[in-house]
Amino acid sequence: MPPTTVTARAPGRVNLIGEHLDYNGGRCLPIAVDLATITTVSRSADGHPRYSSDAAAHGWTAYVSGVLAALGVGEPLEITVTSDLPTGAGLASSAALECSIALAVDTLLDLGLSRDDLMMACIRAENDYVGVPTGGMDQATSLFAEQGHALRLDFADSSRHLVPFDPGSDQLTLLVIDTRVSHALVDGAYAARRADCDAAAEALRITHLAYATAEQIEGLPGGRLGRRARHVASEQERVIAFEAALGVRDWATVGALMTASHVSLRDDYEVSCPELDLAVETANSAGALGARMTGGGFGGRRSPWCLRNRSRTSRLRSAARSPRTATTPRPCTGSRRRAVPACSKSVEPERYLSSAELRPRIRRATISCWICWVPSKMSRILESRPHFSSRSVSE
Prior knowledge:
Largest sheet: 6 strands, mixed
Strand content: 15-25%
Structural class: alpha+beta
Order of helices and strands: EEEEHEHHHEEEHHHHHEEHEEHEEE
Radius of gyration: 21 Å
CATH architecture: 2-Layer Sandwich
CATH topology: Ribosomal Protein S5, domain 2
Distance between the termini: 11 Å
CATH class: Alpha Beta
Shape: globular
Number of domains: 1
């Protein structure tokens, strides 16, 4: 029997390195986290669509309408959204919303679409219906991330490759910090950066700005386009070096590349803000191997992340004033869905199944928790264990 209700979960992401390269034909290296959006979809009983949410930001229904339009769905649906993924924090909350809706609707209506089809529909929803010209990294991560790996995305050839990533085995910890500075990508700054990059690529007569050489960049007219191109080309080189360092577990180089990435985002791409810079500076001065912002930037509620040795907890504690909890992020798999059969006479409230319940054959590593002190401007540290990505579960 076809399901009457489908619930889908889609995670947010932390981009380890490769910021603003997706729409420039470059590479990026994200992981999924267990902060997620959960969407429950059912057919409307009275022919009227209903959308409700306990946590979504203002204007969130545009994403719902955009996904439905991109999927070609006109049937009225009842859609309920819950989330522990903070909006506007640089953790891809909009993509998690899009992917959870797409997965649930695809299953409920038996559209038979592939993950690639769903990814492209979500990208179209954000680009064409919401009006944010993002490049697709967030949607790909939410749908294709895997346990124990980062996901290398190459937007020059649309390829995906899993890269082993397990800093915990070397007693290292990822820490994600929420600056709590509010912002939305639809304010035009994101589109302006993309327009700068398109103009630079056109001036250089190349398809992908990520592959511009230093000599080509020096020939660009004007300072702003040159700075944008310099960030893109140098960030591409950092992604390649980052992956190579992971392969030999050279965490010192990984940390140095993270910090260099932040400096480039701050100075050449001009998308950081004082709160982010303070978070990165504080983390590094307190013993982190490296730190950088993650997300689009532009002074919004962006989240820097750092890589540090677990033994350095006391130094980070003494760096600031407010105690907060944090956990060790581990790369994971992406979104998944579960269906309630039509033959069910009484339906219990939907409960998201934990990774332990869904994937008992996978041994879970020990989660390390600690208390960390941060400057008052940082406000709080997000709990951000990487989690399983999009997996389908039918009942």
